[in-house]
């Protein structure tokens, strides 16, 4: 009977001890989990702050890049517009020399009174001999 009592007492104490150990393990696990969660939350907060700073810097950098690009495009557009206006101005100046139906008689008169001969020759010394009717010995040479 003693041995049965000892066996049951020992078994009961082992079960109580195992139950106490399980509760202690469970309590230790819960404390460790809470500590890990606290560390994880702190780490996440630090990373959030770092990420927000990085995103803010990148956003500012992108905004500055976009502003600079817009300014460059506007300057380029203004330069093209100025060049186009210069071309228009030059063409407007040329328009005054066009022969219109009203100025046709005047242009014909001017062409008849001021004949232009584009035929000329250049000798070995670089002298220009003007006209078809000019002979080589005549003194109508003009140096260019």
UniProtKB/TrEMBL annotation:
The keyword Transit peptide applies. Residues 40-94 form a coiled coil. One of its GO terms (cellular component) is mitochondrial small ribosomal subunit. It is found in: Mitochondrion. InterPro entries: Ribosomal_mS26 (IPR026140). The keyword Magnesium does not apply. Belongs to the mitochondrion-specific ribosomal protein mS26 family. This is Small ribosomal subunit protein mS26. It comes from Tenebrio molitor (Yellow mealworm beetle).
